[in-house]
Fold Transcriptional repressor.
Amino acid sequence: MVHTPSLQHRLPNEGAHIHAPWRSETAKQAIAQSEALCRAKGARLTPIRRRVLEVLLASPKPLGAYDLVDRLGSQGRRMAPITVYRALDFLIEHGLAHRLASRNAYLASSDVSTGRQTTAFLICESCGEATEITSPAVADTVLKVLKEQGYQPRARALEITGRCAGCQDIH
Amino acid sequence: MVHTPSLQHRLPNEGAHIHAPWRSETAKQAIAQSEALCRAKGARLTPIRRRVLEVLLASPKPLGAYDLVDRLGSQGRRMAPITVYRALDFLIEHGLAHRLASRNAYLASSDVSTGRQTTAFLICESCGEATEITSPAVADTVLKVLKEQGYQPRARALEITGRCAGCQDIH
DNA sequence: CCCAAATATGTAGTGATATAACCTATACGA
DNA sequence: TCGTATAGGTTATATCACTACATATTTGGG
Ligand SMILES: [Zn+2]
Ligand SMILES: [Zn+2]
Ligand SMILES: [Zn+2]
Ligand SMILES: [Zn+2]
C-alpha cells in the first residue's frame, strides 16, 4: 500500500500548479449573466452570494468551503462557515455553481445558460483542475443506461476522473 | 429553498425501505471469490478485512464508515473508526469494494472478477440503493470524452443519480 | 408610509466524516 | 530464529457540514 491515494478530500490548492491561464473578462461576463438570470427568476443575488460566486469564478480550481471562508474574510473579519454554505446552497440551487462530491469542493458553472441540465466534470486527479463539459454523447448514454435499469433520470452532475493534458508524463 | 436537498451525507438506512430482497448465497460466493483473488495476489484478507467485507455484502445498501463501526463491534467492544477505514482502504485497493463519494458510503463490489475497470453506479436519490453496472457503452463514451479533452483515463467509478424503479410514483 | 411576512444573515455550538502520529503485535521469508 | 514488513491498537485531531435560534433586511399589501 505504498502509493494508495487517500480516500478523503485533498485541498485543491496544496502544492497547486496551474496549467491553464485564467481570464478575468470571462468572470465579469459570468457575473453579468448570473445577475440577469437571478433578476429574471426573482432570486436575490445578494452581496454575500455574489462575492462567493466571484471568488469561485476567480479560481482556476474547485475550492473547498473552508477555502472560501479563508478567501472571503475582510479586514480581520472571518466569515462563518455556515454563511458560505448557505451562499453555496443558493448558487447550486440556481445552477450558478456545482459541488464536486468526489473532492468536497465547489466551482462556478462554466455556462449559466445551460441551467441544471446533465453536465459532466473531468477532474484531474493530479492537479485537481476540473473542466465542465456538456456532452450530448455522455448525456444520452447515461439516460439510456438509467432507462434500461428502470431508473427515472434526475439532472445531475457526473464526475469523471482522469489526468489532464498538462499533468501527463510530467508527474 | 423549500425542498433543497441537503449537501451533506444522509445515512443510507435512515427510514430505509428496501425494494429488492437480499440473498446470502451470493455473499458467500463473493467471499469465496475474494479469498481466491487475494491468495492469487498475495494480499492478506485478514479477519478484520473479511468481516468488513462480509458486513458490506450483507447490506442491500451502501454503508457509511460509522455504520460499519456500529455493526462491527462485538460484546461491547467498539471498533475504532481508523480500523474500519484501513480495512476499507484495503478492500477498495484490491477491487473488492467501492466508495460512493456522492454519499460518503461504501459497498462491496458486485463482481470481483472485473477488477478495477471503469464501472458505474446507479444511485437512487430516494432510497439510497446503488446498482453497480459495467456498461461498455458508458465506458466507451467516458473514454472518448476524456480523450477529446486530452485527459488520460484512470479506471474509476462513475456515480449516476436517479430514482429507482421501486421509488417511482410511490414517493 | 407602516407593518407583517418572508427572506437573509449573525452567532454559537455540534454532528459527521476521515486521518495523523505513535506504538505494539503478528506474519513472512531467509 | 531473527529481522523486516505488514497489520492493528490507541489517542488525538483534522476536515467538512449543519442545527438552532436570534437579529437584520427586504418586500409587498394596506
Ligand atoms: Zn492536471
Ligand atoms: Zn500538473
Ligand atoms: Zn429507490
Ligand atoms: Zn422507495
Notes: Residues 126 and 171 of chain A are 8 Å apart (CA to CA). The pocket of zinc ion (ligand 1) is lined by residues A 124, 126-127, 129, 164, 166-167 (CB under 6 Å).
